[in-house]
Amino acid sequence: MYISQSAKIGENVSFGYNVVVEDNVTIDSNVTIGHNVVIKEDTHIGEGSVIADNTVLGKIPFKASTSATTDDKPLPPLNIGKHVTIGASCVIYRGAQINDFVFIGDLASVREDVQIGEKTIIGRGVTIENKTTIGRYVKIETEAYITAISTIEDYCFIAPEVTFTNDNYLGRTEERKMHFRGPIVRKGARIGANATILPGIEIGEDALIAAGAIVTKDVPPRKIFAGVPAREFRDVPAKQLLENQSYYVGE
Fold first, then answer.
1. 128-144: string of b/e by CB count within 10 Å (b at 16+)?
2. Annotated domain spans of the chain
3. Which residues contact 97 (CB under 8 A, 6 or more apart)?
């Protein structure tokens, strides 16, 4: 185990075997760190958090020579809030902000310039690309792909294998770089398994996208869209609206 002399370690912190803690890391009290965890410089881990085996925190992104969304710029430290759980073999990049009580499952990846709101659940193997904002009480399930420059507001549900996209030019022409934009998913919207959302699409509040749909145009609030391409099916039933759920605590 290696712990830098400049690291600040709180009370009752538990370390597994082969942990690396680099310069200026701050770990608050009652944190549990698993085996083979690497904590890069300047990272902050809040009180009561749990970091499972083989995870890397605060990784600096590599920039491919042809990357159109990764910036070559200084990034603020990774900040992990209180009582956050991060599973095994995750990679959480420098410049991310993970708020209190977030749960991140095994094998997930969270890029730089990402914000994740409190009590959100990120499932096993989920990828969240850079410049993305995710609200509070969101659930993103196994192997979903959230592309760069996306927005997911509070109380949204993203089912397994959902794919967000942000490039209508499929990697060709320099013009594409002026139009990159991921989807915007408004509060309480739900997206079914294996759905694909095209670049820049806005899904309205409390809308529902059926499993396997390909969404090619904006979806109005409180509507169900289904099919390939997705078309309006009917209204979301009143009993399914967010405002009528017992767990909804409002703004």
1. bbbbbbbbbbbbbbbbb
2. 2-61+76-202
3. 79, 114, 115, 116
- The Cα 56–Cα 39 span in angstroms is 6
- Which residue matches tokens 């977030």? 102
What's the pLDDT tens digit per position in 33-68? Answer: 999 999 999 999 999 999 999 999 999 998 765 566
Which tens digit of pLDDT belongs to each residue from 140-185? Answer: 999 999 999 999 999 999 999 999 999 988 888 888 888 899 999 9
| Fold of the 2-61+76-202 domain | UDP N-Acetylglucosamine Acyltransferase; domain 1 (2.160.10)
Omega prior to 229 cis, within 30 of 0: yes
Contact criterion met (CB below 8 Å) for 226 and 193: no
- pTM of the predicted protein model: 0.94
